[in-house]
Design brief:
single chain, mainly beta, ten-stranded antiparallel beta sheet
Length: 202
């Protein structure tokens, strides 16, 4: 009787062991790896400036800054000592403001061979910046961005080596070849500055 009980016990234990061996093994838990932050890529920034001096007997002064980053050029123009009202502003083809009337700057910069017009409404010159409003205090400013220009790469869309010219009147965006904006009262040659350190962007 005792032998049968021990035999039954052994059989039962063997059955439990066999059943345990048939259970699927649980996969080991993997420790979560920290997620690396996205790579920050350097973006080369180039800057050119055009200090605006007087022409045609005006007292105008100012500064134009062209900043290229990630394929987009941003222009920031500030004027002082200008007569109140609307003044046409253009990029001219020659980087020379030596003439008293700024005629040495040549005509509008127009590498694409288009007719004069209003920026953003084809046809227009790449130099057709537009108009700037000057207040009673003689100051005015203008900011714009575009991917149609470049800074310092030597291409036919490079603004460096050209001139920024301010006119006495408003550009009508229609009259050829320059918008009937009057005499040139300010001029500045666009000069490349030292390349700035690459900025990091996400």
């Amino acid at each position: 009787m005792i032998r049968r009980s021990r035999m039954a016990f052994v059989i039962a234990v063997a059955a439990v062991i066999a059943a345990a061996g048939c259970q699927p093994q649980q996969p080991e838990q993997q420790a979560e790896q920290p997620t690396a932050p996205p790579e920050r890529l350097p973006v080369q920034t180039r800057v050119a400036v055009a200090p605006i001096g007087p022409a045609s007997g005006s007292a105008l002064s100012g500064l134009t800054v062209f900043t290229e980053s990630d394929g987009t050029v941003t222009l920031e123009l500030t004027l002082e000592n200008a007569s109140p009202g609307t003044h046409g502003v253009h990029i001219h083809e020659i980087g020379d403001c030596s003439a008293t009337d700024a005629s040495s700057a040549g005509g509008h910069w127009n590498p694409t061979g288009e007719e004069h017009g209003k920026w953003g409404e084809p046809p227009f010159h790449l130099g057709d910046i537009g108009n700037v409003e000057v207040g009673e205090d003689g100051t005015g400013s203008l900011t714009m961005s575009t991917d149609l220009w470049s800074v310092g790469d030597g291409s036919d869309r490079d603004v460096v080596g050209k001139s920024v010219v301010v006119h006495s009147g408003a550009d009508d965006f229609t009259t050829q070849p320059a918008g009937d904006s009057g005499e040139r009262i300010g001029c500045g040659v666009i000069q490349l500055q030292e390349e700035m350190a690459p900025a990091l962007v996400d």
